[in-house]
Write a structure and sequence with these properties.
alpha/beta, six-stranded mixed beta sheet, four-stranded antiparallel beta sheet, Metal ABC transporter permease, 30% helix, binds adenosine-5'-diphosphate
């Protein structure tokens, strides 16, 4: 049972400028919560606190009921899989890139993770920039495809909790749709916190939390938020 809870969390990088001013929410086991809000609202700060890069000045964060203030960063990293916004690919096949960090994974497990993230058709391909033989060209992956490689890599490690920082780059509607599908598939049944940059990619989240100026301005399902205007 992987449950993440923020309880009245206050945080400031510098005392004179509070970033989070009493944030409370729960990601229930197996559910998906999306955090949205304007740039600078404090969305990424939430995930930095969850990994203990910083400590809240007030309130607390718990994982499975345990205050993370007493948990080693190492253990948090093992329990929480982070899919970063920008992924730098190693100069090797997409399959190698997915396997990175879990070399013992079987071919079947690799394929399963890649399929879930909808990047399986590229497993054998080399990303652009690879030192390919003369006449051959590496594959130029879009931002969305790179993020799906990162999603597959995280899925393969199998952490009970997933934190996904959505790509910020401008995406065409087809790519957006593909990311939404990949998100739907990987988050199903997993405790997932999505730092969302587009409301359209998290329409199915169990709860959407709108951050504004350090406070929760609105919360609810996509439909409920739409109804509220
Ligand atoms: P978001 O992810 O919603 O765009 P962030 O959580 O990255 O926002 O940042 C929230 C605010 O905190 C921004 O105004 C940002 O400039 C500020 N900030 C982020 N990191 C630092 C830091 N290390 N020191 C001081 N201020 C920071
Ligand atoms: P269920 O058991 O009904 O699938 P979930 O909580 O896993 O319960 O998901 C509820 C709905 O939200 C599902 O349709 C799922 O696909 C969708 N969903 C979950 N996470 C996301 C996400 N990050 N982005 C978009 N849709 C999501």
């Amino acid at each position: 049972e992987a449950v993440v809870r923020f309880e009245d969390v206050h945080f400031a990088y510098v005392p004179e400028r509070p970033i989070l001013r009493g944030i409370s929410f729960t990601v229930p086991a197996g559910r998906t919560v999306a955090i949205v809000g304007p740039s600078g609202a404090g969305k990424s700060t939430l995930s930095r606190l969850l990994f203990r890069f910083y400590e809240p000045q007030a309130g607390r964060i718990t994982v499975d009921g345990q205050d993370i203030a007493g948990v080693q960063q190492e253990s948090l990293r093992a329990a929480i899989g982070m899919v970063p916004q920008d992924t730098v690919l190693f100069n090797d096949t997409i399959g190698y890139n997915i396997r990175y960090g879990r070399w013992e994974a079987s071919e079947a497990e690799l394929r399963e993770a890649a399929t879930l993230a909808q990047i399986d058709r590229f497993i054998a391909a080399l990303p652009e920039g690879y030192d390919t033989p003369v006449g051959e060209r590496g594959l130029k992956l879009s931002g969305g495809e790179k993020q799906r490689v990162a999603i597959a890599r995280t899925i393969l490690k199998g952490p009970p909790i997933l934190v996904l920082d959505e790509a910020t780059s401008a995406l065409d509607s087809f790519t957006e749709r593909e990311i939404q599908d990949a998100l739907d598939r990987v988050s199903r049944g997993r405790t997932t916190l999505v730092i969302a940059h587009r409301l359209s990619t998290v329409v199915g989240a169990d709860e959407i939390i709108v951050l504004d100026q350090g406070r929760i301005a609105e919360r609810g399902t996509h439909l409920a938020l739409l109804a509220q205007g």
